[in-house]
Amino acid sequence: MMRLRPLDDQQLPNLTDVQRIALQPTATRLRGEFAPLMQRLATLGGLTEVTRNSSALLEKDNVSGALYVDNEIELAPAEAMHLRIFYPQWEHGYALEEHDVCSGGKQHSLQFFDRFGSMMHKIVLGENGDIASFRQLVSDHAAAEQLAPHLVHPLNSDAESEDDSLRQIDVDALRADWAHTHNHDDFIQRQEAFDQQRLRKLRLAGKAFAYQVANDSARVILQRMTEFGTSIMAQVGNAGIVQAYYGKIKNIRVKDSRLKITNSGFRMQLREDHIDSVWVAKKPTTDGIITSLELFNRQGTHIASFLSKKSNGQPEPREWRDAIMRLMPIFGV
Fold first, then answer.
1. Residue-wise pLDDT tens digits, 234-266
2. How far is it between the farthest Cα atoms of the chain?
3. Which residue among 78, 185, 282, 316 is buried most deeply as judged by most CB within 10 Å?
4. What torsion, rounded to 10 degrees, do the Cα atoms 181, 184, 186, 192 define?
5. Rounded to an integer, what is the distance from CA 40 to the centroid of its chain?
């Protein structure tokens, strides 16, 4: 079983994620057309999928590579996962063979990065995976030039935030669309899209649809759902990919501002010290109101979100909605 590597700001702070990988002697640089590579993953056996941003990480074991063809996979009757991929944002890719401190053997992985050099997604070959097929896949998709300089775009979050703030949002159109009743599938597709203006839209939606709550609200809600045994949807993403997990949350630990969920075969890590605001969002659908909890960092970037897990045609569980309603709104911010 793969273990979560801590989200840490102190590891080689002068290098980007992709530069650290490029320095590894066993790293192979991959060609930039990543979709054809991903569609061949079904031949490798069970995989571990890791999606991350600077503040959260979501990890799922025993996933079939067919996910990248079908874009959805049922893992068990009470559990599922989903990926929504935005390949234009995938700038760099590497294959890596490295020592696995947990098993004592080798870990084989594919790792993908955005144009700023930040890791977006990692795919790890399972213990019973086909190593020969993995190596053939890497050979087939290796870049012709392995020693090319790995330049990344400078990350200027202040400038990007300023550009976003200048983009006009039609408030009346936003609220009309929000009040419109969407079907369940359309809502989920919207929810799984990475939207740089998500926080601004929540602020403008109106208090009937969105309001801010305390920064520890995610921990409170997750602990309550653990007590009730209620299934939820947890999602973590970035500009290149959003991974959603549907199922029960069984084990929660909080230490040094790190909230960790450690289910069998599913793990999530959240840096609570990065949370700058948490919002409750309510959206009318054909199955009734769906309520989500949205987490943002200091730059206004989306960290993670949580919803109740429900079936089409069914309202969200009462215990989920009651727990959300117990969160005290913060107005006037």
1. 999 999 999 999 899 889 999 999 999 999 889
2. 59
3. 316
4. 120
5. 22
